[in-house]
Amino acid sequence: xxxxxxxxELLEAGCDEAGRGCLxxxxxxxAVILPADFEHELLNDSKIIxxxxxxxxxxxxxxxxxxxxxxSVDNVEIDEINILNASFLAMHRAIEKLHLQPAFLIIDxxxxxxxxxxxxxCVVKGDSKYLSIAAASILAKTYRDDYMKQLAAEHPEYDxxxxxxxxxxxxxxxxxxxxxxxxxxxxxxVSLITDGLMIQVIE
Length: 203
What we know:
This protein is an alpha/beta fold. It is built from 6 helices and 7 strands, in the order E-E-H-E-H-H-E-E-H-H-H-E-E. Mean pLDDT is 92; it is low at 193-197 and 199-203. Keywords: Cytoplasm, Endonuclease, Hydrolase, Manganese, Metal-binding, Nuclease.
């Protein structure tokens, strides 16, 4: 069972992002404040939960959360400020959208750009340790997946309905064959090599 709180004195929100490692599309983030007595045996890191269960959990989280919000940073902004800062910015935007402002934040991961007024604690693998971070991971993941499925209708050749913008072999081959779309991130200075296939992505 995941933990309900990192601390018990201040109103606490958990934050997480989805889409950081993708080649296309925005990064999404969510912030969630759960009731102090919230419990759920199945809630966990979105990456280890089947898709059907993720969407069922989203409904329950949204029904029972004290407050929740989702925000994003698009690929153009990602290219301007880099994906790490974009992930932090998406979390800041989600926090600012909460109708009830928390007094303490717990953040999935080991780094965060400090919020102007709210103290925080980073938690490595926090989405598998704290319920509010796990809930944020579910919301960020499902809302981003929904968005990528919408984009897939515009560009079906990239298989975004399935890969959600991640660098699968089919996605990489489609980039070679068709080039970039307006939704692709352009600043990943890496060579993508799979089965002898190379795509050089240069800023």
